[in-house]
Structure formats: structure tokens, C-alpha cells
Amino acid sequence: MNSHIKLLILNWNGSELTNQCLASVEKLSYNNYSTMVIDNGSSDDTIAKIHKNYPSVEVLALDKNYGFSPAYNLAFEHLQSSQSDYYLIINNDTTVEPNLLEKLMEGVAKFGAEHLYCPIIHYVDNPNKIWYAGGNVDLKVGQLTHVGIRQENKGQYSELSKTGYVTGCCIFISPETIHKLNGFDEGFNMYAEDVDLCLRGKAMGIDSIFVPDAKIYHKVSASVGGEFSFIKLKRKLKSVKHLMSKHCSPAQVWVGFSLYLLRNSFLGIFHSISSLKK
Questions:
Q1: Residue 278 and residue 273: Cα distance in Å, rounded?
Q2: What string of pLDDT tens digits covers the 278 residues of the chain?
Q3: Rounded-to-integer distance, Cα 139 and Cα 244, Å
Q4: Which one, of 195, 213, 215, 25, lies nearest residue 121 by Cα?
Q5: 3-class SS string, 51-94
């Protein structure tokens, strides 16, 4: 029998998005998986709709909104005695291709079970435009970017390969590896905990692997108002500064964070000008 894969979907008051995600998950062609929604103390009808529409989906109902890292860590603790061979950590604002799990397992077959894996990710509202095709990270020069972001997919990122980091939007990982890494660092607030996980993994010989034949679609930053929302940018800056403080010297933080701010300022200005022209 194929390895058992447990899909872990975090939700907070995202009833419509989570049900759309589950509708696509239900069409997965892999023959040995199960799904658990981790609910961060929602006040909407998410849990009721899941029980009604997807009775086979397990719900881990938390008593409050713990945020990203603590909620997933609670789920890992809850699943300690489960028989799952792999976890697929996936955002509720995504939809998946039916062969997603088979393609991720092909990556495992080539590189090994101990590593971190991520599919290519496209925008939901522009299905041929790339959001993630690997990650570039060099904190000393303020580099923390997605490969291929906002490019049309013309097959230019087709190699199954090691990359800088996998995005928390979709991480394929074994329970043994997540235990070895001691879960997510709860000092992060929604952003950069994925990069931190990968950097800690790299120091232990655990690689980040990009799997281009596996594909999902992402409604980017739906929970915080969009890709360039003020809430997102504020949280991201705080988390990136924490990431650099954790992995760099004080001098490297000063240089790297300054360069990161400059890059993102130019990106914000470019996006604003582009939006005005439309």
C-alpha cells in the first residue's frame, strides 16, 4: 500500500475558502490520504459546513486563534500517535491538482524522505502565472524572494531540484523531520517561519526541494487583505527582522534588513504605479 499522507489545513473564519480547498482535495487521485482541518477558534460556520459537506474530514477545534506556528505545532503534538508517513501542510486559500500527492512522492523517491518539498504554485485568479517556483534566500544581502514570481509559466522552471526554501503555503514533510526540527518557531507571526524551518533544516542536512510537476493554485494573502496589504507588509517586516536576528550577526542584520527594506520599497512603488496605469 502507498504511504499514508495526512493533509493539514489551517483555518480561521475562512469558511468559504476552506470549503473550496476541501472540494479540490476531495478530487485527489492518490489512494491513501486523509484530511484534518485545524480550526483556530473560528466564530463563523466553518466547522458546521465541514461536518455537513465533508464528514470524513477530521477537525481539530482549538479554543482560540493561536496563529500559524503554534496551531500547527499543536496539530503535530495531537498527531504523535498517528500512523501517517507524511504531512502536507497547505493553506486554506489554495486549490490543488488531482495528481499533487503522486508528484510529490516522485520527489521523495528521488531525494529521500527526510527533506522538505513544495510544488509549483500559481495564482488562483491567473492560473498560468507563477507565484512560487522555488525560493532565493541570502539574508546577509537582504534577499528573500520567490523564483519566477509573476512570470507566465512557459515551462522555464521544469527541473526537480534543490532550492533555497519551501513556502509555508504548501510543505510536504515527514513526521520524523518535523519532530527533528522541533516544529515551527513560535516566535514568528505568520511570515518567515517557513524560511526559518528550512534554514534550520539545511544546517542539519535537510534540503528544500522544488517539485515542478506538482501544482497548486493560491489566492495570495487572502486572510490579510491581499498580496500588498498594509497588514501583510507590517507583519512580514517584523518577522523578517526576527529571522535575520536569529540567523545573522548584528552587522549582517543592519545591512541585510536595510537592503530588504529598499527592495520591498521599490517593489511597492512599482506595484502602485502599475495599478494606476490599469
A1: 9
A2: 799 999 999 999 999 999 999 999 999 999 999 999 999 999 999 999 999 999 999 999 999 999 999 999 999 999 999 999 999 999 999 999 999 999 999 999 999 999 999 999 999 999 999 999 999 999 999 889 999 999 999 999 999 999 999 999 999 999 999 999 999 999 987 789 999 999 999 999 999 999 999 999 999 865 444 455 556 677 778 888 989 999 999 998 889 888 888 877 766 555 555 555 55
A3: 6
A4: 215
A5: HHHCCCCEEEECCCCCCHHHHHHHHHHHCCCCCCCEEEEEECCE
Q: Where are the beta strands (DSSP E) in 124-260?
A: 126-132, 135-138, 143-146, 161-163, 170-173, 208-218
Query: Grid coordinates representing 271?
Result: 506595484
The CATH number of 5-277 is 3.90.550.10
Give SS3 for 24: helix
Domain boundaries, the chain: 5-277
- As a residue count, the chain comes to 278
Q: Report whether 70 contacts 190 (CB < 8 A).
A: no
Q: How many CA atoms lie within 13 A of 65 on its CB side?
A: 10
